[in-house]
Amino acid sequence: MSIVGVQLIIFVFSFFMLYNVYLYWRKGEIGLRGALIWVIIWGGLLIITFFPKFIEPLVKELFFVRLFDLATVAALIILAYVMFENHVRINKLQKQISKIVQRTAVKNVLKKVNETKKK
Amino acid sequence: MKIVIVVPVYNEEKRVVNTVNDILRADKSSQIILVDDGSRDNSYKILKKAFGNNKRVSILQHIINLGKGAAMKTGVKMAWKLKSDGVIFIDSDGQHNPKHLPEFKKVLKKNDLVFGYRKLNSEMPFIRKYGNIIAKKIIGILFNVKRREFLCGYLGFRKSVYKQIKWRSNRYGVETEIATKVGRNKLKFSEVEVDTIYIDKYKGVSLFDAMKILTQIPYWYFSK
Cβ contact (<8 Å) for B62 and A105? Predict the structure, then answer.
């Protein structure tokens, strides 16, 4: 089996990402479930890259001419989903941070006002 | 009717003390809420030093910068805690003349909201002038609200309408969002002509901010 350029790039990148997943999991920054999902994604990509025949029936079934076309569409869909998820989560985080900061600002002043009244 | 003056502050160490002193001189009775929005300069320290013992002034601080809209909301929350019936916002950089405050208060007694407007003359920076003209057209058509100006931050409203106009924008765009909600809820408002001094052309709404505001209009149109 001869390895073509694109396979080599995907291999190096997927291996690097798998190593990253392992590091984050060890640090406790992602849970076991999250780590497993990422291992399946990157591991799956590695398998498909080196054994493309596995999904050839699927390529034909979905009327793609080449495996590369299916991979591109799948990558775009995953990217769009991850972007949407990030957008929603960042918005939620922003709202939570704003609430905390605003509440703290009001609380601190009210506390001082009450202390002054007591004196 | 108790009305509180809210001043959002961000990196205004050079001008804010003068602005607050001007407000205190122009309005002898109202309480003033200063909200430092996580300034990187010494605005908060300077305000504490100058007005920390003044019973008419409350100084709040955001520990991080959230944006003008968020600072305005914090000011409003504090105003309701002080049992206020309404608020008037004024910028901290001295571009709004506090001499109009008594007129704002008078108008607010008869209306749900009061907006300041500046004459669209040659003194107005290019982006604001044409941003205003475009916003006037689009918002006028989409939200059925006729205003002389949409970007002026010198405005006030009663507590009773806060729920209807509560804004989501944390950064620039608050004034425009409020305008859209006024139109949507058919609230009663009046406008007061104000003097405006354009102090720093590099501050305030940039072309990029103006574009962002424009892109938000469809969102305001379709959201409740």
Answer: yes
In Å, how far from its chain's centre is CA A14? 14
Averaged pLDDT in 10-residue chunks for chain A of 119 residues: 78 93 93 94 89 86 87 91 95 93 91 75
| CATH number of the domain to which B170 belongs | 3.90.550.10
DSSP state of A64: -
Contact B11, B39 (CB under 8 A): yes
What residues contact B93, with CB distance under 8 A and at least 6 apart?
B12, B15, B16, B19, B199, B200, B203
Residue of A nearest to B73 (CA): A102
Residue-level pLDDT at A92: 94
**Residues whose CB falls within 8 Å of the CB of residue A62, separated by 6 or more in sequence, listed in order:** A70
Output the pLDDT for position A108. 86
Of residues B9, B98, B96, B94, the one with CA closest to residue B46: B9
* Range B46-79 burial, b when 16+ CB lie within 10 A, else e: bbeebbeeeebbbbbbbeebbbbbbbbbbbbbbb
Backbone angles phi, psi at B145, to 5 degrees: -130, 125
Domain of B91 in residue numbering reads as: 3-222
Whether B205 shows a pLDDT value over 70: the answer reads no
Q: Is A31 helix (H, G, I), strand (E, B) or coil?
A: coil
pLDDT digits (tens, 9 = 90+) for B133-179: 887 788 888 888 888 877 788 999 999 999 999 998 887 788 889 98
Structure tokens at A3: 């390895």
Q: Do B35 and A105 touch (CB under 8 A)?
A: yes
pTM: 0.80
| B62/A102 touch (CB, cutoff 8 Å), yes or no | yes
List helix spans (H) across B13-125.
16-26, 43-51, 68-81, 101-108
